[in-house]
Structures are given as C-alpha cells and as structure tokens.
Amino acid sequence: MNYRYLLFVLSILLSSAAIYPCSAQVAQSGAANAQRPNILYFYVDDMGWGSIGPNAQAQRREAGLPSVRTPNIDSLAAAGVNFTRVYGCMVCSPARSSHQTGFHQGHTFADRNDPNNAKKAIRTDDITMGDALAKAGYTTGYWGKWGYGGSKDQENPTLDNIQTLPTSHGYQYVLAELHHVRAHTFFQPTLWHAPAKGNTSGGLDLITNTMKPYQGDKAYSNDPTNHNHPDYPSTAYCDDLYATHCLDFVRTNAKKYNATGTPFFGLLAVQVPHAPFGEIAELPEWDAAYQADKHFGKLATQTRQWAAMVTRIDAHIGNILAALDDPNGDGNHDDSVADNTLVIFMSDNGGPGGKNNTELDANGGLRGVKGSIQEGGIRVPTVMRWPAKINATSKLKAGTSSDQVIDVTDLLPTFCQLAGTAIPLGIDGVSIAPTLTGQGQQRQRDFIIHEAGNDQSIIHRNYKLVRHSDKKGNNVSFSLYDLKMDHAEQKDIIRSHAKFSDELKTLLLGERVLEPHGFANTYHHWTGQNGAKTSSANNWSDYEYANAGITYMTDNGAPQISWIATMKNNGTKPATAKADADLDVLGFEIRGHSGKATQTLDLNAQTLTGRNQIRLVSGGHILLNGGTLQSQRWIDLLQDASITGSGTLDADLYNAGQLVVTGTQGINVTGTYHASSTATVNMALSGKANPRLNVAQKATLDGTLVLTTPAGFTPGSGETFTIVTAKSISGKFTHNKVTASSGIRFKIRYTPTTITVTVD
After folding, report:
1. Alpha-carbon distances of 432 from 315, 394, 414, 738, rounded to whole Å
2. How far apart are the first and last CA of the chain?
3. pLDDT digits (tens, 9 = 90+) for 596-630
4. Is 149 left (phi over 0), alpha (psi -120 to 50) or beta?
5. Cβ–Cβ under 8 Å, residues 412 and 405
6. What pTM, to 2 d.p., does this model score?
7. Beta carbons within 10 angstroms of residue 329's beta carbon
8. Residue 171 burial (CB < 10 Å; 0-12/13-18/19+)?
9. 613 pairs with which residues across the strands?
10. Phi, psi (5° rounding) for residue 645?
11. Of 284, 274, 263, which Cα lies nearest the Cα of 313?
C-alpha cells in the first residue's frame, strides 16, 4: 500500500488552490513576455459534458447529491473560461482525426471507428497540430491514445502505416498507444516511444516492462532533477505513464522557455475515462479520494470506478499545472511560465450510457450518449486558461462561461495563428485566436457538421437540424431543435420553420456527409505551363493514398469539390493560367515563386469556387475579367498578392494585399470587407463611369488608397467621385489626401455608407 501516494493525492484533492494559484498570483518571468504562448492541451476520452463542476457537478454538490470530484479542472475553469457549447465527434477516431487535421467528418478520411487501423489514417498530406507547430519552432510532445498506424496485437504490435504515426506528423517526444483496440485496456505490456534510440522505422521504439516504476525520461534532459513526482506509485496503468512523461516534458521545456524563449506544445491524450472501468480497482487505494464521501458506497460499482478514474486523471492534471507554476520545484514561482501558457481541457466526445450517467448526470441532462448525433454524444466539456490574455487583453473574463459555438476542428487553426504560422488551406476549422487574445478580427462560421451512424446534423447558431435514415439510407426524415430554448432536444420545431430547414438541408448535404466511409478531400497542385487551361486534367497532379501495397483511394481528372488545389509558379518567369470553365473546389490557393515570378489566374468571366477558402499568397494574382470568386466563407488576399479588374467576390474579403478596381462594373463584395494596415485599394478613375468597390455588408477600412487616372482626365475643382459603398463603414485609410497618377490631388471624405474623393 503506497501511503505516501495516498496522502499526495488527497492533498491535491483537498487543497487544489495550493498547487494551482489563481492568475493574479502567478509570477511573471522574463520569457513570459514572448508573443507566442506555450500550449498545453489535456484531451480526455469519453468524458461527458456534465462531468465537470461548472456544467453539472457543482450544482449537484450544492444540492447534496453524489458527484464526481474534479478540483483541478474546476480550478482551471475558475481561472479561465468554461466554454459550454464546444463540439467533438461521436466516437474516438473521427474526433482525433478532426482535431489534428481541422477537417470535419464529411472531409476527413477517418470519419468512423474503422477496425482496419492501417487504413483509417491521418495521411502524409494532412497537416496536423504537430506538423504546424514543429515547423513554427515549437518543441512538441504527444502522450496517450493516438489511434492510427499500429496493429492491435497486445504482445508484439507492429507499425503498419508509417505515414500516419505521430512521429510522421511533427511530434518529437511521444509515448503512445497507436491502435484504438489496444487502448481498450489500461495495463499495456508495451507502448510506443520517441525519440527512438536508433534509426527505427517510423521513429518509434516499442518499449516493454511498462509495469515497472517510472523514474523519469532521460530522453528529454540529462538533468538529474528531471524526474516524475517521487510519490507516484509503481503501476502499469498506462495513463499514469502518459501523465508522468508529460510532466517531465513540461518541467524541462518550461526551463528551456525561460532560458531561450523557445515555446512548447504538449498534448496529453489520455484513455481515461473510456471503458473498461473495472481495471482501476486493481490499483492500490484506487478509491481513496472518495473514502470520506457519504454517497460513494451507495453508488453502483461502475459509477464508483468511473468516478475514481476521472479524479485520478484530474490529480495528474494538477501536478502538471503545478509544473507550469514552479518548473524546478523549489517552491519559488519566479520561474513560472503559467502566465503565457494556453491550457486547454477537452473531451473527444460525449459520455457513454450507464450508471455513471444516470447516477451522476455525467452528460449534464443532454439527450443521447457517445455514438449518437444528439448533444449528449457530441457536445464536450471544454475549459481554457491563459492569464496573459484572459482578463487582460481579451473580452473573456476569468471564472465565467461562454456559449460561443466552437468545434474540435477549430483548435488546429487557433494554434497556427497563435504560433504565427500559416493555417492549412481549406480546412473546416476556424481560428478562435482573436477571441482568446482580444486582437484581430474574429471570423465567423455559419455552421458545423457531424455524423453518427446513419444520422447527420448541422448546427447553425442556436438551431440544429438532424437528418435520420435507416442502414440502407432509406426512410429519410428530418428534425429541427432550438438548442437555446430546448437544451435536451425534446421539441421538434421543423414544421414551423420549413423554409429555414430547407436551407439547412442544402448546406448539410453540400458538406459531403452522405459519402461512403473512407471518402475524404484530396490534394492537387497545378502542373500546367504558361497559358494552359484549368479544365484539363493533364494540368493537375493526381492523388493517391496507399499503404503497404494497398491503394485506399485515388483521385484524378479535372478539379472537383473535394479538392484542396494549389496553383504555384515553380519557374523564374511570370506565368498565367486560363480558366476556360468554372472551377469548384474545397480550397484554392495561388502563389508566385520566391517573390520573383508571379502566377496569374485569368478567370475570363468564369466562376472560381473555393467552398471553404480562396487564398492568394505573395506573388499570386487573379485577373477577374468579369468573373466571380465564390466561397461559403472567405477570400484571403495576403500581402504582395493582388486581385485586379471588375467582377464579383461572393464571400467575405480579408485584404492584406492589393485590390485593383478597374472597369465600369467595379468589384462587388457580397459579404463583409476587412482591410489590414498593409492593404491597398487601387481605384482607376475614368470619369463619370468610374468603378467602385461595392460592399453589401460592413466594410472595415485600413491601409492605403491609390488613384490612377488616364491621360487627358481633367476633372474640375471640387468635382466628387464615389469610390466605395457599403452597408456600413468603420475605420479609414491611413491618409486624408491622395495624389492620383496624373498629379491631381484629392481629399478623401467619409459618410456612414460611402467614401468619396473630391478634387482638392
């Protein structure tokens, strides 16, 4: 019996504030002023929305009802924000694929718990959190259930798909279970580990004897003080090992952050509290935290085991958070890195059915359980803490709850934006970095998508449309719920919202939710020469996803809606591609080559649709020529890229580059317009029929206005030209007057809905 460990755990449970000071008490370190935060992500398995204090358990305690104890997660919420409308997926594999790659189930390859672990995968071309943050200079670590790439054999597992391993996707320090079936035990005889000792396939070692005491991972550091807490028990409960590896990583890299400013990203993806529940009873003093709880002995066996699992991982979380506050463990918090560390707690999906749900309300009164399309299957508990921003620069306040709708796909783009690296093209997720920091423009999504068996759903703000069918796809029916008024999805309101429901149906089906298992987006790049036509399959690369001699999917031909398409000039001279037919893809990017050779796409009155995104990067240029750029979401015009001519931008436009408006039609933006300080609007005045930038919604201005005028253009003094119209206008150009190319000087004047220039 490990009495020291028992006392250690009880000290965590009873005195969480002692190891987890509130943000006001966290000392500032020199490196804490760095712009890029450390990111520490706790990702649990099958923990229902109501399993934490802020969502259900605190109310149960106040009412004298039995509850599960999560003091460290609850303290995290008290110092951060509890997000009450966050969505994962209905089961493990799609949740992990979606949160790593940013694609929802309609677009990610692993949209089900496929028993063929080598097939279901994060593919070579998929950019994960590890890929993006390692490239951005972060030190990266992953510990826990990965779910892809290895066989399910308990004693002698093999690496069956190298391209889908965590080490193939940017994770440098790893202790993981690769197969989700092997993860259905907490007493693993072997686990996969990196850095590997030699040049092993996949960069992973298979370590054995995991039932022996763990005394620290010297792969991180030769520092003899770098070891796990001395009171941890000698146990093979794999989540204990995951947590101690994470603890070592945080200690070592917090010191490195203080010394060098190098940020770290750690993802602890534990198996707790996934079944089997009974294995925890094999550990010494497994229920010690509940010995004084008068309710505990009256609960069902499964409930007691589940509660003990949750509280056990909560204690590990407390230890790791304490390492942020005091990396060297000397009791002095001058070396704390907690202030500039974004900490996230989240579950992959809702909780399962069973006594823990009925006796402890683990899903917080939501309808359905894990595996279902209802809120109990897909809504997950989520807490975020970042003292340097929450309660400081953002509108978020510590100790509060937010009902902002967030999807698991949003974490990848959020991390990318915080790290200052490019967000992968065309993904479904939307960065919430502006919400967390209070800086920049928070982009809005119209909807999020989920699949569960034969059901699919679309959530649009407070409304949720669910599509039901049988196993053959027949007997289709729909239901609609107002989640704000109907928390438990009890009242179907579809009959009174028929037109709105039809609009949601169209959006839902457009997200490819009815595709067969194994369907996914594919990646293609432009191979055409200067002047080549975009409709020709010969001018685009083919796609193949294969492993071990088996081809799982191929895609070729002309561009189609599932494509992530990149058009890049790889040469040294400017090049142009000719659009001879409409282009309809999921994501589209155009870029030049090393700032030397531009790449132009001449739309030639055609329509280019990037359903999720159109992005123009440095040297990328689109010549509208009366054409249309269309997206469900936005067009990104980045610095040193340009859009020229007249036509329609049927999306929100984010301009950090150059928008050159010519022709009598001008450019019509059907959504909102957002300009950054590097943005330029170049307006070609030509007289009474001068072009305009017409914005149907709000226009937010910044940057520079440039006016060009033709030879012989001689407006009279005081003559006025309207150059911008919008539903509403905020902000201004960075100057009050502008001199046209002809030398004529103009004053810029603003009204709430127009911008005019007047000859000075």
Report:
1. 28, 12, 5, 36
2. 88
3. 799 999 999 999 999 999 999 999 999 999 999 99
4. left
5. no
6. 0.93
7. 12
8. buried
9. 587, 634
10. 115, -150
11. 274
